[in-house]
Every structure is written in structure tokens, then in C-alpha cells.
Amino acid sequence: MDYADENEPLIVERRRGSSTYGSDSRIRTSEDTIINEISDQNGSGFANQTNGGAKTFVTGSRDVLSAKYESLDYDVCENKILLDEVRSSSNNFLVRKMLARWLIFFLIGVFTALVGVAIDIAIDKIATVKYGLIKQAIDECIEEDCLYKPYLIWAGMNAGFVLVGAFLVAYIEPVAGGSGIPQVKCYLNGVKIPRLVRLKTLFVKAIGVVSSVVGGLAGGKEGPMIHTGAVIAAGISQGKSTSMRSDFRVFRYFREDHEKRDFVSGGAAAGVAAAFGAPVGGVLFSLEEGSSFWNQSLTWRIFFASSVSVFTLNIILSAYHGHPGELTYYGLLNFGHFESLNYDLFELILYAWMGAVGGLLGSLYIHVNYKLTVFRMRYIRGRWLKVIEACLVAAITATVAMLMMFCISDCRSLGQDPTENPIQMYCGDGEYSSVAALWLQNPEASVRSLFHDPPGSQNYLTLFVFTAMYLGLSIWTYGLSVSAGIFIPCLLTGAGWGRLTGMCLGAIFPNADWVDPGKYALVGAAAQLGGVVRMTISLTIILIEATGNINFGLPLMITLMTAKWVGDYFTEGFYDLHIQLSGVPLLPWEPPAMSFELSARGVMSYPVLAFSPVEKVRTIVEALTSQTYNGFPIVERVQPTKSGNGDIAAIGKLRGLILQSQLIVILQRRTYVYLETKPDNEPPIPLAEFRNNYPRYKNIKDIYIPEEEMDYTIDLRPYMNPSPYTVQDTASFPRVFRLFRALGLRHLIVVNESNEVVGMVTRKDIARYRAKSNGALGVEELNISDKL
Amino acid sequence: MDYADENEPLIVERRRGSSTYGSDSRIRTSEDTIINEISDQNGSGFANQTNGGAKTFVTGSRDVLSAKYESLDYDVCENKILLDEVRSSSNNFLVRKMLARWLIFFLIGVFTALVGVAIDIAIDKIATVKYGLIKQAIDECIEEDCLYKPYLIWAGMNAGFVLVGAFLVAYIEPVAGGSGIPQVKCYLNGVKIPRLVRLKTLFVKAIGVVSSVVGGLAGGKEGPMIHTGAVIAAGISQGKSTSMRSDFRVFRYFREDHEKRDFVSGGAAAGVAAAFGAPVGGVLFSLEEGSSFWNQSLTWRIFFASSVSVFTLNIILSAYHGHPGELTYYGLLNFGHFESLNYDLFELILYAWMGAVGGLLGSLYIHVNYKLTVFRMRYIRGRWLKVIEACLVAAITATVAMLMMFCISDCRSLGQDPTENPIQMYCGDGEYSSVAALWLQNPEASVRSLFHDPPGSQNYLTLFVFTAMYLGLSIWTYGLSVSAGIFIPCLLTGAGWGRLTGMCLGAIFPNADWVDPGKYALVGAAAQLGGVVRMTISLTIILIEATGNINFGLPLMITLMTAKWVGDYFTEGFYDLHIQLSGVPLLPWEPPAMSFELSARGVMSYPVLAFSPVEKVRTIVEALTSQTYNGFPIVERVQPTKSGNGDIAAIGKLRGLILQSQLIVILQRRTYVYLETKPDNEPPIPLAEFRNNYPRYKNIKDIYIPEEEMDYTIDLRPYMNPSPYTVQDTASFPRVFRLFRALGLRHLIVVNESNEVVGMVTRKDIARYRAKSNGALGVEELNISDKL
């Protein structure tokens, strides 16, 4: 067959020269009317949002998707060269690959735990010195009336520590900021987040977490552990590091999106497991956040990595704390041992009520933090400003603590001293200030104090002010240019008001044996955390595992359930909100309700750029240079049909799909692939060559092709995916959505009734539709912008 | 448009008039050569199995699929009448539906627990009386040398009890036999198992379990609990009972395969949760056995049902055992309280070794039981034979017990008495026979004894013989015509040799504090159970929850992992084997390795029976009468194309898909739907009418249609699914498999490059391919028979 004769470029002219559409997304034009009609039918007034993409972009809008994010590709490209490789592989190779998988999951578990332990010990050592110094200074100054001295030491140390982390995050690697959970969630959902899983990010994250926790910020090291696990998994499984520019030449057969993501989900699970001592919770976190398809053997391996991670951490931490071999440190965050967590039936109503309060407070937290985030996006844009803000918040944290210690006198006798650094302040001899006890330790220790201190360790005022202050500080802290998670601040705030609730109940029912402030602190902590993060089954199980008490599962569940319901009524979940703000095209679990009216034809991008099975080099180079599309249908052109297609041209019968990255690799290896003189029996480029270039391919501009070779042709057939998934243009949106989501696709080709390509559906085409936010039935459309 | 003009039947003549193909399956003929070629390439010698379907059917073959099983349909048929209903529904309705879902899951949890409690209490009461009588008889006869008396009492009672259950299962409802787990697994996989979730089945199951446990058979009530939960879920969610012929007219909007299966997976989870006190394990069981698609909100509801189930059970059992409100009975199977389950690092190697032993013994168990099952399928076919065999085994169990008590003298002093019915036998005064202690209680109590008895409660011989005997009896028991599960016999056998291992270790290392026979009994129990059932993450978590010790998760995991690996090397898992024997077309998680060579064209069934969008009544009636196909493409006929299609005719451009059940309902309502005089604006049959007929539709033969109406036409367009999922005929088998599995399809239409229907892929077309069983690379094909 002589395809070369008809290889005029199959590029249909673009309708609108907008450059605001990114690579995964394709141009859509007149179909906007469809959604407008739906909007108008329901009279929702959203029509103004959807009139074309020309609307001015507003920073901090939740209705805009960023054009810069691209998709991972989980679909295996079953081209000829893959089949050749599979055919020649032996049973032996399959076994070796299987063993390599288990080995990698083992290593992920071990290394995640090691990094977690290193962070934990660093924080422990530094914090001991820091709080020791402050205690010493306060003890000296309380008599000499020089309390400004310890205050300055405290504020100075806080700001100094935070400076390191903030500088690293702001100047070296911004993606290491925050907890990393939203980003990992996006990655597992199938979105490429640039630099998320690089070694440099891990480095900044680890130092950043230590600096922000010892810097006294209201943040924890648990969220970052999840990110840490993800980076480690990506690094080990790919056997190379871009940051270190080294390739260990191992595990090369795992170098594809599909395999990498499986490992990363294991890493995230190992991170959760290490953080909370919760191997099952880790698995469920990975499933809840990441899975679209349940894979039994993958789940089993993830559980293995999580268990190994908890075990390794346990061994090392037990030895570090002087009990080698005892295996009693299940996770970085230790809730301490609950003697008994019994409850009466009627208490479930109290827990539900506390869940509702958690949902309310969580929504408040999210709403204020949202406003603050938008403010930051608009006004705190310079890197140095970000660093200064972080240091300022650190200093203010110290200020709040000192002021509280100064103003509130809450003395307890030393006998039941629950803290390492009891401080007398203005208390009598043999007494210590319970306010100082709460502030002069790491927040995790304070959580434990609130869970386990005997009744009457604090008075109402102490707890109330502490909780309120900590709530405010934690809202202010998240979004700073530092690495820190929100689990601990939420748990601490919740434990605060939960314990307060327990104390009130104790005052009302003085003789009731079911009233235990520690138990109510636990329920409050769960309620607050659930109200903010809105996780369901995984959070329940993480908390069950962290308390080590299976019996208390139902109360925790009821608390989290009402927290989520009440919270969802008011705001989105915290992570979802931050994902919306960054414009990531996350796909939800289900298509939006009432999206039946939309069709594939209505959501697809068109016209589509396509190639012939045997294509001219010039056509390909021009297409790659002018566009940043990631996938191109391969079509055999037919006579244009006019059968009721309206104004959308059918391009040709579908023959396959080829990716931009494949074309780049082919063009790189020009000498023996597409030279006109190439003999017919020349083998195609082996698959290994494509793998070696993964995941960072050259830019087309960096590939030199002599002018005379521009008229040669390339046979794309050995490389293309010969049967890509397609959908009829009349298929409803929910069907398109389910197909796309269930199979983890990056490109879905839309064909007409004669199997001719008419359009392409990518992630952004799907993610841009959501249920109407004003509660009405129907869907609304988001804009896509490259300014985000 | 006047479709009626061209509505000649679109039935292409069938190539081969074989009636051995069932309704879901379509005729395949010349494509068999494809698989033969693959076989021949690898020289595997399997070609003889695949030469047509004419091979003689051999009872007990594992290479044959039964033609009688049909698929559930998870794909929503988005036809016009559904869209009309959705459009007219209010937000209020969506909320009500959501609340109804939660309510149903709550009720599933409560009722599953109630049935579980009823079974448990019945067994407890009857067994107490039974063993009391036997003990009394033995005590009286030991001096008077009349031991034949208690033996006859024992054997008689056993046979009598078992007679009830065996009769019910054999004569009333055979699907209630066994544990029900394989059947539930198939249902969750998407296979319709006739009468599996009927109320009558539940009734037989409940009575059957009580009769077989009090009848002394080596079986447990845990597996049946899972089946019980599934039936309860189906019953509650559908708001009607076919067995009771009553329709409560509630929850009608849940009457479709998709919704029903979601509830059934919740019921199975609630059953596991109630059986083992393992809510998380229940959820993971449902996921591991049933899910192909991870659905977050469904998982959360399943967890809710499981927690409610455990909670309800706990409340009632605590009250029953005289501790109301204490909530210490987490499940029906109680492993008892492990004081401490610590382990040293090197012990993990021992556990792995024990796992391997478990895998070996498990394979032995499976192999012998397999041979026995095939024997039963061939020779024990009469119902009365089945009843007799069951009673015989019950009597033999009593015989074995009496013989062991008679022959083995193993006396312990009464002080540390661990049983309710200590029997002196030939022991001295103040002593009891430890052999009798093991036999004279329910097997669950024996499991607890082996876990918790102080070291030295039995001697080596007792344990060895007991374990060997119980292993043999349990192999013989499973497959009898009784309701009983294999969890308990496996746990008991494993606990036996595990404890024996622990005792040996104790003899070798007399001063080691890590040697605890109870701990090793637990590991042995896990190893044996894992070696038989081969479940992974769910079993690990069930055991963790049943022991209440999160810390011991890693050892259990390592044990189960090696048990599975070693076992898989020798045989299939127990449930999988029984599923294979019954010929159920279960779909595995992944397509078989090396199935790339097969294409959709190679596996599809053809020719396909199709209808026009507007079709003559006669054509439809004839098609439904002559065939039992479940889905029919709707096509618009075009000129036959000859473009390289070989001998497979393209039928026409695809327009939609209609189900047999829909056609039946349409024909039933003939008067106002298809009468020739029907005015154009006559509304189509509402969706409610289709729902009310679900799931048991009339037979076409029971619908009377006057001859004069036979020439009328029906407009099928409002009812058909206008955009069914399709696949190109060139797509590889793994792609077809993934699409089918991920979307839970029942029919996948195969189209050619012009979108013309050429074939249909159903579950059996996919399930019949599996990786070669002789370890070679490649796939082999199973036969399909209607004799199974």
C-alpha cells in the first residue's frame, strides 16, 4: 500500500485561534449553546458563565480549570512492538517481574518508615532542646520580672526555624508546601502534577516539616508523610532520579504511567500507615482517594507495603525510645493507650451532635481559610513576602502562647504532672501552670494530654481560650509557604472542645461513670478532623487503628458521618476546595446528576488533528511544533460525508491513536526508522527505547531534522494503538464519563455513526462539568484558563 | 420515517443449530481455529479441547462452563423513558432516594444480626442439652461398662439432627447447601444464581445450619452467615418476596440489577461482620469478592451496614449472656481474649514456614475434596442418597469421637478445666479426659480451647489424632447436602497442628518466653484457613478483628501470604474450584496473560439476531419464541458490505440495544402501545411498569397476542438503549475484557470499521478463555455445555 501518496496533512483548520487552551484540551466552540440551553431551561442564571471562554479570569475563582495540568495514561498502548515484546517474553520473565513488584513494595515500606523515623527523631531532639531553653529562661525570669526575655527567645527561635523551611519551599520547591495530600490525591486521580514526585521535593518536604513543627507552627508531620511515601515509591519503582540525574538501570519495565501510579498509591498508603500506625487505614486511604478500579492483587501488595512500613517504624522507634524489640510504637502519631473506651447506647446521640458541631466548625475553618487563600493568591505573590508571612505567623504563635500563660492562671499540683517541662509561672510551690503545659510541648503531645490527662487537669477558661486560639492559628497557618499538615491542628482543636464538652457533661452528671473527658476529647478530635477533611471510611479506620480500639468503631463512624453530612451542607471538603482553587481537573466518582442531556458531541473538542497511517515527516513536525496536543488519531481519509453532521466535519475512518511522546521518540531515532532508503525488513524501534525516554521527553524544537528528510515518510502503524477506546457522538455524558473514569483514559475518540473521527474527549472536557453549585438540578460548565 | 416498510426480520440464519448454547451465549463457529493456532504454536496439545463444542461432556470436569447461568446487568439503560423520568424528578426525590438507601443498609445490618443471633442461640441451647445428655450417659456407663449406650445416643442424635437439615436442603432448596460463599461470590461477580437470594433459601439455610452444627458435623455457621446477609439484603431492598408472594410496594426504584447487587454486597459484608465481629473485614470481603469498580459512597454505606450489624449482635448477645450493655460479644465466632500477642523478629520465619505447611495441607484438603465432589456428582445423584450420606457422616463423626475417647487416655486435673462438660472416662478422680473435652463441645469452643488453654492441656498424641481425624471429617463433610461452612473446620484443624507445633517448640526451647502454644495455634489456624480459601487482605483483616489485636497483623499477613503462594502452586483455591465444578462463568480480575493474540472478532458470537427501530410484532414474537437471547441490537439495515469481512456478515448500522425483558413487558402491554391505531402522541410505557415486573418476567409463551395484531408494528426507540457500549472487531481480547469487566456489562456489541454490527460478546464468550493450566504461556478455551 502506498499511503505516502495521500499524505497531505489532515489538519482541519481550527475554528478559533485561542491559545488559552492547553495541551490536553481541545477547542470547543458552538457546542456551548447546549449547556446554555440547559441552564436557561432551569432558569438558573448560570448562562453568563458559559458564554464562551472569553470571560476575564479572576484569581481565586473556584469556577476555572487550569489549562496546565495533563493526564496520566493508564491505558496500555497495545501496539505491534509491545506484542512483539510480549511474544518473545518467557514465563521466567513474568515471574521475575512479579518478584520485582513485591521487592519494590517491600522497599517502599522500609524507606518510607526510615524517612518518617528520621523526621520524627529530628523533631524530637530539636524540640527537647528548644522547650528546655524556654523553660529555663521562664523559670529564671519569673522572679526577676524579665519575661520579655523568654518571649524573645521563643519568638526568635520559632521564626528562625520556620525561616529555613519557608525559604526552601518558596525558593527551591513550592510543590513541597502544605501537606501534599491534595496533590497526591490529584496524582492518584490521574493528573500529572509537575515535580510532585521528585527527590528534590522530598528533600525540601522533609526539612520543611521539621522546621515548621519545631518552629511551633500549628501544623503536623502526618500529611507530609503521605507525600513522602509517594515520592519514595516513585523513585524506587522507576530506578532513577531526575533530581540526582542518575539512572540505576533497574526496574525499567515499570517505566510507564500505569505501573508508576500503582507504586505511588502504595507509597501513599505506606505513608499513612507510618504516620498513624494504620496499615489498613493506609490501604483504604489509597483506595478512597485514588482508585477507580479495584485491583485485588495490587491492594494486597499495597497492604504489604503498609504493614512493612508500620513494622519497620515500630522496630526503630522502639529501639530509639529504649525498648528494643518491644514493638509498641505503632506510628509517628501516637494516641496513647486508652484503657477502656466503653459507651452507652444513648451516648451515640451525643456523638452525632458532636459530629454536627465538628461539621460546623470544620466549615468555618474551611471558609475562613478559603478567604485567606484567595487573599494570598492576590496579594502575597512575592517569594520574600511569603517567607516573611511564615516567620510572622511563627512569632505570633509564640506571642499568643506567652500571652495566654501570662494572663490565665490555672495551677495544678505537680503530682499528676503530664508534661516534660512543667513550668511554675505564677503558681504556688509544688504547682505548675496547665496553660504552659499545653503550649510548651509539641502539638501531638498536647493531643495525647487532652486524651489522657485525668479529669480536672485544666479549667474551662484554659481549654476554651486554648482551643479558640489554636483554631485561629491553624486556619492562618495552612497555606503558608511551609510544609505542614492539618491533621494535628484539627485533632488538637477538636480534642480541646471535645474535652470541654466532656467536662461540662461531668459537671451536669457528676456521678455518671460514662463521662470521661478523654473519651469526649477523642470524639471531638474525630468530629473536627472529619468536618474539615471529609474523608469517610479511611479516616474512620485510621482513627480506629490509632486508638487501637476496634470496639469504638461505631461511635467514631457516627461522629464522622454527621460531621461530613453537616459539613457538606455548608462547604466543600478542605482538600477539594484547595484542588478547585488550583484549577486541577479532578474527576469525581460519579458523573454529575442530571447530566444526561449532554452528549459526547456536546462535550468533545474539535476539530481534531489527525495523521495518516504513513505520514510525511514535515506534517508531523509541523503539527508537533504548532500544537501541544498529546494524542493524535490515525485515520484513513474517506470522502467527506454530509449526512446530518451539521457543521462538524468527519475526518476519516479511525485506524488508531498515537501519542505525542511516541512521535518525539520516533523522530529522535530518524536515521534508521524513516529514511526513504529504509529496507522493508528493517525492524521498528524497540519498546525499550520508548521506556528509556519516559517520563520526560524532548521538546520537538530540540530535535534537529535536516530539510531533505522532511519529505520522507514514517510508517506509524507499528507504534500506534490499533484499537483505542471510542465512543459514539450520540452517547450521553454519563456514559462517556464512566468509560473514561473506569478505564483511566487520557484520550477518548468520538466517532460518528460510520466510525469516522469527529472529536476527542480529554480529562478537561469531562472535568469542566459539575452539578450546579446553587443546588438546582442540572450541570454547569467551568472555564479553562492558562493563567492559573 | 416509515421504518415499518422495511421490517423484514433481521435474523441472519444460524450457522450451526446447536441447542447446547444458552441464552447469554451466542453461537461461535469457525473462529475456533484462532485458538487452535495459538495452541499449536506453543505445542501444548490443548487443541483437542477446542475443536468445536461437540466433545462429550464429562461430569466433574473443570474445563466446561455451564450454559444455564446468565449475567446481571450493571449498565444503566439510558433510554428515553428513563430520561423522561429523570427530567421530571425533583431534588426532593433524589434526597428521599438517598435516605432510603441509608435506611435499607441500616435494616440490613439489624436483620442480619438478628438472624445470626437466632441461629447462635438455637445452637447454644440445643447443644447444651445434647452434650449434657451424652456426658450424663457416659458418666453413668463408664462404671457399668455400657459405653455403647452413650455412643448410640450420640450417633443417633447426630444423625437425627442432620436428617432435618439434609432433607430440607436436598428436597426443598439445594442452593442453600454448603457455605454459600462461592455462590455469593458468583453473584457479586455478576452471575445470576437462580433462587440464591430468595426467602425460602434463607429459611432452609438457617434451619440447615442449626441442624448441621448441633448434628456434630465438621462445619460452621460463619460462611452461611454471609449468604444469610445477602438474602436479607436482597429481600429488604426489593421490598417484596417471591417466596412469600407479597409485594410491600416500597423501594420500587431500587428494582434493578445494579441497585440490587449493591445492596447484596452490603448484606454479605454485614454477614461477615456479624460472623466474625469484623466490620472492616466485612467491607473488604465484599470488595475483594465482588467489586470491579470502587465506589466510595457505596463502600461507606457497606461499612455502615457492617458496623450496625456488629453493634446489634453485640447488644443482643451481651444481654443473652447476662451482661446487658457491656458490649463484649463482637461476633458469632469469638476467638476469646488474647492477653498479649507479642513476637520476635525471627519468629516471622517460623510463621512463613507454617504458612507453607498450611498451603500444603490446604491443597491436600482441596484435592481430596475435589475428587470426592466429582465422585458425588457422578454417583450420589438421588436425593435420598444425599440425605443418607449426610446422616452417615454425622454418625461417623460421633463414632470417631467415641473411639478416640475410648482409645486415648490423656488425663488432666480438673483445676484448669476449660470445658463445660468435663468427663472423667478412665481418668482418676479429680481428673478429666482432655480428648473428651475437645469432642464434647461445639467446634468453635474447641478452637477457643486450643487458642487459650494453658500449655500442657493436651498431650501430643491427643492433638495429633484429633487434628488428623478432624481434617478427614471436614474434607468429607463439605459437599454434603447440608448447610455448613468451612471456616470453623479449617480453623480447628489448623489450630490443632499449630498448637502441636507450639508444643514441639516449647519442648525444644523450654526456657524461651516467646513460645506460646496458643499463639502458634492461632498462626496454624490462619495458615490452614488461608491455604484452603486463599483469600488475602479480607481474611487478614477478619482475623485481626477477630483476635482484636492490630499488633499481630504482620505475622498473620506473612502466614496468609505464604499459605496462598504455596497453595496456589498446587491447586486452585477452594471456592474457585467449586465454582469451576459448577461451571459458573466467573470473570477473573485481569484478562489471562498472553491473550493479546485473540481479538474481539475471534471471541464474539455471531450471527446476531437484530431488530429494526420500528419492528413487526410477529418478528419479535418469533425471535423471542425461538431463541432465549437476552439482548438484541437495533440496527438500521444498509447494503451488505463485503470489504474484507470474510464470511462474517455485517448486519447494519448500530442504533441501539434492547433487552429481552423489555420486549416482554412491551408485548404484555400491547393494547395501548403498538396498536396500529395508536395516536402519535400516545405516551410510551412508563419506566415503573418495567420495574414492577423485575426481576421475574413472563415467558413469551404466556403472553397471548391475537393473530391480527401480529402484523402491527412497535416503535422500539423509546425503550432501547440508544448508545450501548461497543468495541471494534479488531480490538484485542484484553481490551474487550477490561471494558466488559470495568463497566459490569452483560452485552458488548462488536462492530466493524463502519460501525456495523458483526457480533456480540457476552460473559461466557469472555469467561471461557483462561491461561493454560499446564503452566505454558498462552490461553486455552473451555467448552460450554447445557448438561451442567
Automatic annotation (TrEMBL), chains A, B:
Its main location: membrane. Gene3D superfamilies: CBS-domain, Clc chloride channel. Keywords: CBS domain, Chloride, Ion transport, Membrane, Repeat, Transmembrane, Transmembrane helix, Transport. Pfam families: CBS, Voltage_CLC. It is a multi-pass membrane protein. It is found in: Membrane. This is Chloride channel protein. The lineage of its organism: Eukaryota, Metazoa, Ecdysozoa, Arthropoda, Hexapoda.
